[in-house]
Amino acid sequence: MKRLTVPQIQRRKFEGRTENPLVMLTAYTARQAQLLDPHCDLLLVGDSLGQVIYGLPSTLSVTLDMMIAHGAAVVRGSYHSVVIVDMPFGTYEASPQQAFAAASRIMAETGCAGVKLEGGQAMAETIAFLTARGIPVMAHVGLTPQAVNALGGYGARGKSQQEHEKIVADGVAVANAGAFAIVVEGVLEPIAIALTKTVEVPTIGIGASAQCDGQVLVTEDMLGMFERVPRFVKRYETIAETISGAAVRYAEEVRARVFPGPEQTYQPK
Ligand code: KIV
Ligand code: NA
After folding, report:
1. What's the whole-number average pLDDT of the chain?
2. What count of other Cβ atoms lies within 10 Å of the Cβ of residue 226?
3. Per-residue confidence at 4, pLDDT binned at 50, 70, 90?
4. Mean pLDDT throughout 132-146?
5. 242's torsion region: left (phi>0), alpha (psi -120 to 50) or beta?
6. What residues form the membrane-spanning segments (predicted)?
7. N or C end of the chain, less CB within 10 A?
8. Which residue out of 28, 67, 116, 226 has the highest number of ligand 1 atoms within 8 Å of its CB and is therefore the one to mutate?
9. Whose CA is nearest to atom 2 of ligand 1?
10. d(CA 71, CA 228)
11. Do 254 and 152 sit in the same domain of this protein?
């Protein structure tokens, strides 16, 4: 199977988007990528790895080196999905030139297909700059977690008419600037509908209703790794219990000297 391409993803907007929504999940490691890759169109190396695997309080202290290390692992572990790597906070907002320096390192050192960055109208010039220089950009509007301090929390966005209009204008601006797809996070359904109808690139929703052209979730969230998850997450597994349960049984067997048994023990011939 040949790897999907960014133009193929973008064209899905017009090729039966209702029957064939885009499927995206996050991946941070090679083995996780191997397991998810055959079932997805896109794998996102999200800066959510800050909380999910590094135990950080937010995505703000995730570094370029962290994203590159995990991005390279996910590219090595996949052969079908388009791999997109998040640009971390502080590596792209200052200027298009700063963004190009960081994005070109991500592209060159991971082998990914494109980058994702947060922001709407304010990032349009940067998106156009990167796109014109051969770097596909996925945009991210609505609830943008790197702006948590400015937004005042992780609550759903677009509750006022003014905010609704701002988010739709953000989506239009990034699409016009050349973004090949837009993640729409944590917005009321009417915003997802308006944005998806207006822009000519796929919208990929997370907490943005079924009306987007695709969906994404943080894999650990949908696996049931965490006790508390946002309302928009559906848990398809109870992996936390599976892991704790295995640790309980292992600890019991070690303490009872049941493990290792004869099958796990080397003996002289
Ligand atoms: O970092 C991330 O995982 C993301 C997705 C939730 C869209 O940006
Ligand atoms: Na992210």
Report:
1. 97
2. 15
3. very high
4. 98
5. alpha
6. none
7. C
8. 116
9. 46
10. 26
11. no
Domain CATH for 202: 3.20.20.60
Residue 246 and residue 146 in one domain = no
Active-site residue, 185 included: yes
**Overall number of domains in the chain:** 2
CA–CA dist 59, 79 (Å, integer): 27
Residues 52 and 134 grouped into a single domain: yes
167 and 240 part of one domain: no
With respect to residue 1, please indicate whether it lies within any of the assigned structural domains.
no
Residue 267, in any domain of the structure = no
Is pLDDT at 18 greater than 80 in this prediction?
Answer: no
List pLDDT tens digits, range 20-48. 899 999 999 999 999 999 999 999 999 99
What was the pLDDT predicted at 16? 66
268 domain residue, yes or no: no
Residue range(s) defining the domain that contains residue 72: 6-222
In the predicted structure, residue 19 carries a pLDDT above the cut 90: no
DSSP 157: B
Going by alpha carbons, the residue nearest to atom 1 of ligand 1 is 46
List pocket residues of ligand 1, CB cut-off 6 Å.
26, 44, 46-48, 86, 140, 183, 185, 206, 216, 218
- Tell me, yes or no, whether 14 and 135 share the same domain: yes
Ordered alpha helix ranges (H), the chain: 6-11, 30-36, 49-52, 64-76, 96-110, 124-132, 148-151, 161-176, 189-198, 219-222, 239-255
> Mean pLDDT, to the nearest integer, of 170-195?
98
